[in-house]
């Protein structure tokens, strides 16, 4: 039973690794398409040919002397260091806790041949000890553990091990020291089961077909204590094998020096930026982390959210995407950080990528694969607004020509005007309605868009787009500010900005919102009893002053409901009643859980403190973010803010099991460094700030659309109808005693609008109207009403 096809097909249900990455890396050569991760002393997921496709689960050593048995990731204590500051190659030391041996690894990429290289030194403290070591690799090709096939083979007379699935082939080559080889099904016939049970390698299966597989190689160190392991991928077995063979023919130190030199050159290119010279602790690591998440040719410019799968050790093949997907919001945040740090090309590449992945109607998907294919189906309006903001920043910097992006700009602006201000989902991917963060980004994009469209010669459209921004801004309190709730009474304030407000609901009604990451029985919460940190965006983007009474009231509630003190410093939760996080016993999020503190929200709070002029507090929060990072300098999505649970690896003030590193969090850190140096948030929109904070421009107008069917309107105000087609509106303000027909006008031939000044209409208690659609030559077939106050 120890040869031929392995037994136990298809193996146990596959799981991914912990999301707690301590290092990520890639070559800066565009022809190299490998990206790797490390944690717990070993290589974790390796991505190829795109930054969104994981190909292995992990690769570690197994160690035994016939009596004891260790797997490297669990049986040793680990330390990790960057080769040089800001250069993502790593020296890892794994020490036997009983001091019998030590494993030293250097992990990097052969940029020329696109190969992951691990140089390993195995040191026995007593040379008389008869210690055996083995390589154990778990292929998870094409983002999945099942359906993999592994076999022992050779290429040009060299013994190697291979795996394949879905047209991708993997080769593992350990030259000079390879002994016995075996392929098995995980949980049954894999090398871990064999060696853990027998304290030696007894299986030599030649293949394991179509399942969750693992491959094992005996390492023979009779004459030396160091060896190299090479992993590569290709569209054929021969391609992958040729890559590892070519790499093995080179001196490993020369390969490393070449890899390092490309990063050194990149750092010099970016080091012209004053921030780098200031030596903020995580600035260089953040630049490397963000750059490592950028895609290569032929689909260059995309930036994924994280080279990790949140709570990956609880996740299987049913979660193909993890966080190695592109969220346009996270991507723009990262591209802006690259811009701040002097990587102009990276930021421009990101804009060009977004230009090419925009949907025909002007929006961007909630998230997507590197090839632009939608993953989740939601629409988040801030993700259509953010690319406009990035375009403005690059245009103002003189890095792009506006006319080259005019079509993208027009389509994005048209989509916001046609569908805003409401969003199908807020930035936390859950509820729809009016969201302060979403609206802040929309207004910023509209203000910038108005200026850019005017520059392109669309003067009338520019005025209307600015008018829409003014309408949005003038109605923020009406949509989102609630008074006299139980939450207000609890904190002694008269009112506060709620987390999100449902469409078509009056701001003072007792409506509810669903918390979708909580058990169904406790998922509904009164809107007026919710609060979120997103309100700080109203100050950050320049829409409200920091001392706005409603902001001050809301911050008091935020600190009472969402702030947690940890051993690393204060952190804030996203919103009250949040369920996105581990359960209280430390088990991973599985659709429900308990939300934890987010380091990036400490950064957002620091930006608010800068707006208040409280620079010392902002700097303290910067240091909190630095303490939140792990030993590899990776900033996590969430921090564990409960009591320590050592058996789960959860410690107060340290990273939880959520995504790490989170690119958005690293971008937030970079922006905070910039804000500390410049005394204001990077995102503050000076057009908006001048209009809404300094000049306090407010207009008495509202928008009605099929996405925003308002129910109430001041009688002496104006109303703008936003419509998809050419039409005319027939309306009355006195129960059809008088009526008016007003024809629509076109904006870019994509959006139609009708403006009505109610002072010119005879009105009583309500406005009633319907539409006649010219293209289809038909009436709407029903009337709509708006109460006049």
TrEMBL record:
Keyword Metal-binding carried by entry: no
Matches recorded under Pfam families: Glucodextran_N, Glyco_hydro_15
Sequence ranges assigned to domain Glucodextranase N-terminal in this UniProt record: 6-267
Keywords: Hydrolase
Record region (Disordered): 1-20
Record-level GO BP terms: carbohydrate metabolic process
SUPFAM superfamilies reported for this sequence: Galactose mutarotase-like, Six-hairpin glycosidases
A GO molecular-function annotation: hydrolase activity, hydrolyzing O-glycosyl compounds
Residue span(s) of domain GH15-like: 295-672
Protein family membership: Belongs to the glycosyl hydrolase 15 family.
Entry-linked PANTHER family: GLUCAN 1,4-ALPHA-GLUCOSIDASE, TREHALASE
The protein's name: Glycosyl hydrolase family 15
Organism the protein comes from: Cuniculiplasma divulgatum
